[in-house]
Amino acid sequence: MAHMFDYIAWRGDLSFAQSPFNPVDNIIFSQLAYLPLDGIVPGPSPYDGVESGSISVRRAAELFNEKLQNDPDIEQAVIFKEDPELLRAMGSSQRFGDCRLYGYVNLIDVEREVQFAAVCADTGDNSSFIVYRGTDLTLIGWKEDFNMSFSEVVPAQIEAARYLEKMAHRTRGPLRIGGHSKGGNLAIYAASQCGAKIQRRITDIYSNDSPGFHEKVIESDGFAQIRGRIHSFIPQESVVGLLLEHGNDHHVIKSSQIGLRQHELHSWEVTHNDMVHLDSVTQGSLFVNKTLREWISELDNEHREQFFEALYTILSASQAKSIPELGSSWFRNAGLILKTLGNIDDSTRVLIRKTLAALISTARRNIETLLKPAEE
Q: Which of 90, 168, 175, 349 could form a disulfide with 198 if both were Cys (CB 3.0 to 4.6 A apart)?
């Protein structure tokens, strides 16, 4: 089995002019977007239109390596442990090393419940790839994902549309946009909402195991305009990539991991210019997808909002700001969470109990899905 590091070893000596951009390049850049590149990659141009510069992937790799050696805190900000080595491998290759990175933004706003990050890459083939980061390890990032189940639009989607407009005005030529997990959702949303002039420049939209949308987004004229340019990939045991409505077909990709670990792009198997495709997802993926869809559809928007607000309030009682923090002091955090559970009002407690009971009931009702052959 081969993964993105193998691809860089195989194709790293070929520029994008020699070997055109392909789906594997998409997941490599989508993974790169998870790295904390603050202070390394220049930010978006000021609103007066003056450019703020760019940096090669090669130089970014050197500076990031220096940060790792001198700043002990940066390692805690790395979401996927393989990513620093991925950046070094990209920087050492001819294919990626001279690509220019610019427009990096990393926004976390607890008050607005928004987690948004993105970066642009000039790939040297007269095109740019605008990449949106998926959900990071912050609790507010996961809260925003929950909000997608009852909100037509979430703040990160609005930020994504603004970012696309801004970066499109800075660049010339064709645009590719994409991302992993929530990042792919943001890419599709931004493409569906931008002006017609920018839409015409978009050649490809990459969605890598990304959640879907509120029905109104799928039914919009903007989505209809870009539907045919969406490339949607999910692993064979996908959960995240089958949530909500999508409005387009998926390509099923082989992963070397199992369960939720298949969501990680580092596990996706590749060839010299593509990913390894399968005919269908597994019965387990169909079961989880059918169960979650039915469970959510049986809850009205108000019920969904109340449930996820209560869940976030309970987790936030730990005073942890990220998933690692929640687990690092689990004994203390468990105590604070249990205390919060004891203090919530009766109506909220009943709401949580009924909602979880409905999920269990829906799962039992769909258990036969596990025994049926998987469908594409």
A: 168
Length of the chain: 376
- Return d(Cα 32, Cα 85) in angstroms, integer: 10
Which domains can be identified in the chain, with CATH numbers?
A: 4-281 (3.40.50), 288-371 (no CATH)
Phi, psi of 129 (to 5 degrees): -115, 115
- One pLDDT digit (tens) per residue for the chain, 376 residues: 899 999 999 999 999 999 999 999 999 999 999 999 999 999 986 544 444 699 999 999 999 999 999 887 888 888 889 999 999 999 999 999 999 999 999 998 777 778 899 999 999 999 999 999 987 655 665 666 667 766 788 889 999 999 999 999 988 899 999 999 999 999 999 999 999 999 999 999 999 999 888 788 899 999 999 999 999 999 999 877 777 778 888 999 999 998 878 989 999 999 999 999 999 888 888 888 788 778 877 878 787 778 777 766 666 665 555 444 544 444 444 444 445 555 677 777 787 788 878 888 888 888 877 666 554 4
Nearest to 173 by CA among 236, 130, 119: 130
Question: Which residue from 182, 76, 166, 93 is spatially nearest to 130, judged by alpha carbons?
Answer: 166
DSSP state of 254: -
Which residue, among 149, 148, 143, 150, has the nearest Cα to 112 in the 3D structure? Answer: 143
